[in-house]
Amino acid sequence: MKSKNIIGHITSFLTIFIWGTTFISTKVLLQDFTPVEILMIRFLMGYIALWLVFPHHLKVINPKQNIYFAAAGLCGITLYYLFENIALTYTLASNVGIIVSISPFVTAIFSCIFLKDKRPGIRFIIGFLIAMTGICLISLNGSKSFAISPIGNILAILASIIWAAYSTLVKKISTFGYHIIQTTRLTFFYGILFMLPCCFVLDFNLHVSQFMSITNFFNLLFLGLGASAICFVTWSFSVKTLGVVKTSVYIYMIPVISVIASVLILREPVTLVSVFGIALILLGLFLSESSKKETAPNSPQTSW
C-alpha cells in the first residue's frame, strides 16, 4: 500500500509538471487558434488516443452513474477551461493564477461535505496560507497591483470551484470499479458533447492552413496526448490512490513549474521574489501533504 502511495505522489507530480508547462504550448497556438478551437482539438485527440490504447467499450452497470460521468465532463473538461480562458480576457493572468490556486482548499471543503472525509487539520490550513502567499509573490512579481476586474475575477473563482467539483466527482467515480482509462474516456466524451454548443456561439472556424505548421502540430500533439489523454488518467489514478485532498494540493506546484519553464524555455529572468515565492509554495505543500491522511470511502479494486 505504501509503494502504491509513492506511485500516487509521483503521478501527481508528473501530472502537474506537464500541466504547468502547457501555458507555453497554448501561448504559441493562440497565434493561429482561438481558445475554444484549442480545447476541442486537444480533447478530441485525447479521446481518440484513449480508444486506441484501450479499445474496450465501458458498459455502465447502473444508468444513474452516467450522471456522475456527465457532471465530471461538464465540470473538468468544458466549464473549467472555458471559464479560465474567458477570465484571462477580462483580467490579468496573475489574478487568475492566484484565484484558481484556491482550488485545493475548496476541494477539501467538498470532500468533507460530499465524501464524508475528515475536516482538514491546522497543518493543512497553515500550508494553504503559506502556499498562497508564495503564489501571490510569484504571480504579482513585476505587476503593479492586483487589478480589480469583477467579471474576470468571478470567472476565475468559479473555475477554481468547478475544478474542486471535478476532482470530487473523480473520487466518487473511482468507487464504481471500472477501468480508469474507460472512465476518463467517457468523461472526455461528455465534455466534448457539452463543448459542441460553445463552438457555435464562440469563434470556431478551423482551416487546413492552421495545421500545416510543424510547430502547431507538435504543440497540439503535446496538449492532446500529454496534457489531456495521459494527464487526466494519471490525475484520476492519483485521486483514487491518495485521496482528493492530498492530490489537489499539488496544484500549488503549477506556478513553480511555470516559472522554471519560463526560465529554461522562454529565457525569462528569475528574480529573488520568485525564488522566495517558490520556497514558500514548497513549504506549504509539505505542510499540507504531511497533515493527517483523509478518510476515503471504501472502493472496489479497479483492474489495470
UniProtKB/TrEMBL annotation:
Keywords assigned by UniProt?
Cell membrane, Membrane, Transmembrane, Transmembrane helix
Instruction: Classify the source by domain of life.
Output: Bacteria
According to its UniProt record, where is this protein located?
Answer: Cell membrane
Q: Which residues cross the membrane?
A: 12-30, 36-54, 66-83, 95-115, 122-140, 146-166, 187-205, 217-237, 249-266, 272-288
- GO CC terms for this protein? plasma membrane
Q: What is its main location?
A: membrane
- Known PANTHER family for this protein? INNER MEMBRANE TRANSPORTER (PTHR32322), S-ADENOSYLMETHIONINE_S-ADENOSYLHOMOCYSTEINE TRANSPORTER (PTHR32322:SF18)
One Pfam family it belongs to:
EamA
Name of the featured protein: DMT family transporter
Q: Taking every annotated instance into account, which residue ranges of this chain make up the domain EamA?
A: 7-139, 151-287
Report the sequence similarity comment from the record. Answer: Belongs to the EamA transporter family.
The membrane topology of this protein is:
Multi-pass membrane protein
